[in-house]
Amino acid sequence: MNCFEKQKKYFENILHDNLLGHAYLFVGQDLKGKRLFAEDICMLLTGKNFDNNPDLRLIQPDTEKDIYKIYIEDIRDLKYFMSFKPYSSKYKLAVIDNADAMTIEAANSLLKILEEPPAKSVFFILSSKPRLLPKTVLSRCETVVFPPKPEIQTEEMNKALTELRKVAKQGMAERIKYAKKLHEKDDYAALVNLWLRSLRLQLSNKPTSAPILRRLLHLSYVISQPQYNHRLALENFLIQL
Question: Which of 19, 159, 162, 209 could form a disulfide with 203 if both were Cys (CB 3.0 to 4.6 A apart)?
Fold first, then answer.
């Protein structure tokens, strides 16, 4: 949490004063540390991170579906989970990542939970596009802002982007071969992050760049999750260039 000392101090103060609320909205650009910060706070509250935590439920869009959404069934499952008392800590926690992907039905279902939250429950709602969330949901949360920090195009980023452009000019067979070679390296996630950061800096003011940025953001998310086929995700992204 070194990058977010102000936010860290905020939570330290409310915990010290026993003023922890029941719902917090983390607002900031994608890949700006909201999820990592949420995991740190969950560790602080329960002594465990996201993995194998019986008192935490993580809700996020299903990347295996064509439509990148969080559905009402996900929130209903969350409601059932939150209805039980904490198992091994003082709190029952819910983290909703990319909450702006909720359908209107899911958002309304969440609102009902926030209106009458279970005892000892805390909700962390993460969003890069809070304008897409109903105002009624926003009004039930305390907002914590993660402001963007100016980023400078580095030589490393230029090199990574040049390589990506070179691959984009190749045929399908060469792209698939490149994906295989890239996947065999341990640092492919870092390279994808360099692509994303570099393209954001260069294309942020160009509306036509939105599709490739969305696909790259989706790729970055998929390869951060161990349950997905990372090589296939790399192939799909490169084929669509």
Answer: 209
How many distinct structural domains can be found in the chain? 2
Both 94 and 166 in one domain: the answer is no
Residues 160, 97: Cα–Cα separation, whole Å:
28
**Mapping DSSP to helix (H, G, I), strand (E, B) and coil, where does residue 139 land?**
coil
Question: Which class for 19: exposed (0-12), middle (13-18), buried (19 or more C-beta within 10 A)?
Answer: exposed
CA gap 145, 28 in Å, rounded: 6
Which domain CATH number covers 96?
3.40.50.300
Given strand 56-59, what is the order of strands in its sheet? 56-59, 92-96, 121-127, 23-28, 142-146
Q: Do 119 and 175 fall within a single domain?
A: no
Residues 102 and 48 in one domain: yes
CA distance 220 to 217: 5
Q: Tell me if the pTM is above 0.90.
A: no
Q: Report the alpha-carbon distance of residue 156 to residue 161 in Å, rounded.
A: 9
Amino acid letter at 42? C
